Amino acid sequence: MNASPVYLDAASAAPLHPVARQALLAALDDGWADPQRLYAPARRARQLLDAAREAAAATLGVRPDELSFTPSGTAAAHSAVLGGLAGRRRVGSGLVHSAIEHSAVLHAAERHVAGGGTATSIPVDRVGRIDLDAWSAAVRAPGTALAALIAASHEVGTTQPIAEAGAACATAGVPLYVDAAQVVGHAPVPAGWSVLTASAHKWGGPPGVGLLVVRKGTRWESPWPMDERESGRTPGVVNLPAVVAAAASLRAAAADAAARGARLARLVDRIRARVATEVPDVEVVGDPEDRLPHLVTFSCLYVDGEALLHALDRRGFAVSSGSSCTSSTLRPSHVLAAMGVLSHGNVRVSLHQDTTEADVERFLTELPGIVAALRAEAGVVGL
Amino acid sequence: MTAPEVLDCRGRRCPLPVIALARRLPELPVGTLVRVLADDPAAAVDLPAWCRLRGQEFVGQVDGPDGPGFDVRRRR
Asked: Which DSSP string corresponds to A187-241?
């Protein structure tokens, strides 16, 4: 029997927003020329690019010349970290970041350290919130060039105290980079940052478009070879049809984010409560209050994460996991490890605009039996 | 202090080391120290988390010639 598919992995990639599809198809016809050139099709492409930039900037409340499009959210994160450090190399080579940044930020930090820089990782508590005292002390330390803090965890949904962390940075004169990939298009972006990145396929835009915003007055220097496109911040021609679709869908997603977020937050509340009571020996992780509206994570004791994902997939449920057996490196999620919560049997459920109450109900109805069957198979019932 | 009871889970992927501990610990008297040898990287996260969830004491990690070891004391 084939169960009808229920897609619950919007934090990896949200389904394409209908507005994105329309804009993409229109821009494929109109936006194929190189916007830098001096003839009619190029001018048309330039108009589309300018309009997309203005729309995205207006949605984020920034100036259009502060916003550049990148080939991905990962490329934007790399640029934010390495460019933010390069622009402040005269001050020092210290990077401060939370222990639960996205791997794109941590990999950029590794590159920085391999090149002779330093990186200080700030611990988080059991719900995944940074230690603000440790953060403030680290950004005040001499030689700190840049601080990086994820707006909300892509793995457990906990939102970070960006305003307080940003105030500590402002006092110390250190620019704050905020990875807002899970927030942009879903919730208002908190103030207090100097550099911000986002990723279009997290809000219903197409894959292959990232945003890099560098506020006026921020010392930022491109870490890439010279290229004049995108204010010198992103080398290469942007994928204009995808950029147009990303900007249009961002405006649409942000316009009804409050209503959608409220609806999804109620569904997440239901998942948090029902999983905790109806699945034995389960740990629901992340902050129950200060969190993303659309994402919830839990770990099932004694259950193999990969087996759980496959069992859910067979029943039509698409979810992701931070368990080591589901990662290519066979290491547990660094986020779950930093929080000190169970990493095996881990499931991340992330909802989107097409998620219905019936989808969530079916998931909640089937999950306890699926977990029980896996435990029975493994002989761990009653442990 | 006597040598701790050793549970050799080397080469076994999580959650197997946690399951092995959950099976063995109740068979031992309260107060017994168990050393779980486990080389799966998730063991360093999951063994302390299990102790917290089950009210047992995670004493600490000891890296010896046999690889990473995790000491747990039965408290209840």
From this structure: SPPPS--SEEEEEGGGTTS-SS-EEEEE-TT-----SSSP--GGGGTS-S---HH
